[in-house]
Amino acid sequence: MDGKRHSIAKRLEGTESSVWVEFGDLADKEKALNVGQGYPDFFPPQFVADALRQIASSQDPVVHQYTRSYGHPRLVKALSDLYSILMKRSVDRNREILVSVGAYGALYCAHQGLIDPGDEVILLEPFFDCYEPMVRQAGGIPVLVPLKSTKSRSPVPSSADWTFDRDELESKFNPKTKAIIVNNPNNPLGKVFTLEELEFIADLCKRHDVIVFSDEVYEWLVYRPNKHIRIATLPGMWERTISIGSAGKTFSVTGWKLGWAIGPEPLLRALCIVHQNCNYTCPTPLEEALALLFELELSRFSAPESYFEQLREELLPKRDRMAAMLSDVGMVPIVPDGGYFMVADISLLDFKVDEKNPESRDYQFVKWMTVEKKFAAIPNSAFYSKGNKKLSENLVRFCFMKDDSTLEKASEIIREWKKTL
Q1: What's the angle, vertex CA 244, arms to CA 250 and CA 14, rounded to 5?
Q2: 16 near 8, Cβ under 8 Å?
Q3: Strands (DSSP E) along 86-240, which ranges?
Q4: Residue 86 and residue 227 in contact, taking contact as beta carbons nearer than 8 Å
Q5: Are 173 and 208 in contact (CB under 8 A)?
Q6: Which of 166, 322, 324, 391 is at 20 to 30 A from 238, Cα to Cα?
Q7: CA-based angle 248:249:252, to the nearest 5?
Q8: Per residue, what are the HEC states of 259-310?
Q9: How far, rounded to the nearest angstrom, does the alpha carbon of residue 269 sit from its chain's CA centroid?
Q10: One digit per residue, pLDDT tens: the chain, 421 residues?
Q11: What is the DSSP letter of 213?
């Protein structure tokens, strides 16, 4: 067999590496405490497990067979009921909702279904690392606009300090611009976009006839007094926005790998065509269980006992504990307004870079920390394009969506580390 002829497809070139594989393997090898990757290490709430158990033991054989390609009927009904409230308009369950294999699946379908070769897609950096490969695999051209801190030395740095330069963003819109991806709240920063910022983006999109892929997987993890604003609810934006959500982030079950896309039929139809010729459908038992969960949350919507309300309250002390820990060894945490990640500045640490090593400072630091301190994180430059990685060479991402016992182990590592300073 001709190895050259049967090599990786050219459209995949440049997307082979994975920060998750590299640093996950290193953490496993070193038996390090992994507070880098974004998943809970504790059981989901009992009512979530009960819903899945109920479906697994159902006497209805149909729940174990293929279901409707674009979303299980009971689930799209529940999503329609919820998002009709959130979007402040009626959302058609059969024409304006697609259930996908995770939010990843929805994003992939959006790119494959709506981006043509040569189309430009604006990405706000830092961005989740799958965005750029998805644009390139669709034949699109990523156009980068970095978020920057407006406060060089703030006493308590916050994700709210970060924003885009309006003139720079406006300059990137042109006749080739097809879409912009807005991740709100942002991963890794935890930035929650303000109404003024979203209105500015929306005005540019309407002026240049650009669509929005709005990645809102952390929509329920916005800490008071901040508010999550859905860009699709702004005037003239429903018809040009695909809003994406995640069961994993909503109910703390990342292993379920269910997501959804919501938007106007003319746009959503493109995603459905990709989905039907790729995954075709999602696991019926999981979709049925997820429908039960949304039905329950709808019955207690906005009430204190709602999981949507409880989760962010439960995460606040974890967030503050992580910030205090990192501060104890000289890092400067950027306190997030949303999500469950925290980026910390390591520029004040006495860490010597190996000048012969081509890797950036944050990559070298995280590897050193994993090996020497048995404390694993993710280098933040992984969330930047190749040309802008320098902007993040002193930043590292941590995840505080961890069990209290894990955070206590982290505290022990930090206490021992502090003794060496």
Answers
A1: 110
A2: yes
A3: 97-100, 120-125, 141-146, 148-149, 162-163, 177-183, 211-215
A4: no
A5: yes
A6: 166
A7: 70
A8: EEEECCHHHHHHHHHHHHCCCCCCCHHHHHHHHHHHHHHHHCCCCCCCHHHH
A9: 23
A10: 877 788 888 888 888 888 999 999 999 999 999 999 888 999 999 999 999 999 999 999 999 999 999 999 999 999 999 999 999 999 999 999 999 999 999 999 999 999 999 999 999 999 999 999 999 999 999 999 999 999 766 677 999 999 999 999 999 999 999 999 999 999 999 999 999 999 999 999 999 999 999 999 999 999 999 999 999 999 999 999 999 999 999 999 999 999 999 999 999 999 999 999 999 999 999 999 999 999 999 999 999 999 999 999 999 999 999 999 999 999 999 999 999 999 999 999 989 888 889 999 999 999 999 999 999 999 999 999 999 999 999 999 999 999 999 999 999 999 999 999 8
A11: E
Return the residue matching tokens 């039907």.
276
Which tokens in the block code for residue 174? 């042109």
